[in-house]
Amino acid sequence: MAAKVPRDRIIESAAALLAEGGRDAVSTRAVCAAAGVQTPTIYRLFGDMRGLLDAVASHGFTAYLAQKSAIQDSDDPVADLRAGWDLHVGFGLAQPSLYTLIFGDARPGQEPAAALKAAELLAYRVKRIAQAGRLRVSEERAAQFVHATGKGVTLTLIATPPEQRDLGLSSMARESVLAAVTSESPPDAAGGLTNAAVSLRASLDDAAALSLAERNLLDEWLLRISKQ
């Protein structure tokens, strides 16, 4: 079996230190000792410790994303989003140090690659709800609300001693969010203008009969309606 390249050894060593001792355990000295490399190697490969931590986050998040992506689309996109929420919270409780590394250190305009991938998957789940005519608000607002609430709940549970955690908090928050942004069924002919606008906007890419400029203009109008 071929020996692992230094980059892989460094990332795996840092990930192990993070899992065992939290963020404070991932020092340059500790990583170098565990990976069998010199300090300049870390800076040559990752730029700085922030770069290494971002690489560790992406590495550790890969398995989670594979698991989350493996959720097969069902006939009920709201149920799929519910399953994704539970998986997200479960990941945070199973790997608190990694979760906090990814979601607990907000840097405006500098989201870790792992967080961006998770956002893309969430956006996909929300778009499916919109296409089904079951989204009450714009896709952007729904995704932000789900993300912000899910992250807040998960970080709160992580900060609570295991024996004191109320896991019902997650279920309560999840159902409250879903009730706020989704509906039980598509709007009927008598109403549901906002839902209809959101649904049509989610499918604009399929409107081949319109030019790009026309789709952009219609997108702007529909977004305005969906925010009313």
TrEMBL record:
Residues 27-46 bind DNA. It holds the Pfam family TetR_N. SUPFAM superfamilies: Homeodomain-like, Tetracyclin repressor-like, C-terminal domain. InterPro entries: Homeodomain-like_sf, HTH-type_TetR-like_transc_reg, HTH_TetR, Tet_transcr_reg_TetR-rel_C_sf. It comes from the Bacteria. The keyword Transcription applies. Keywords: DNA-binding, Transcription, Transcription regulation. The keyword Membrane does not apply. Transmembrane segments: none annotated. PROSITE patterns: HTH_TETR_2. Signal peptide: none annotated. Residues 4-64 form the HTH tetR-type domain. This is TetR family transcriptional regulator.
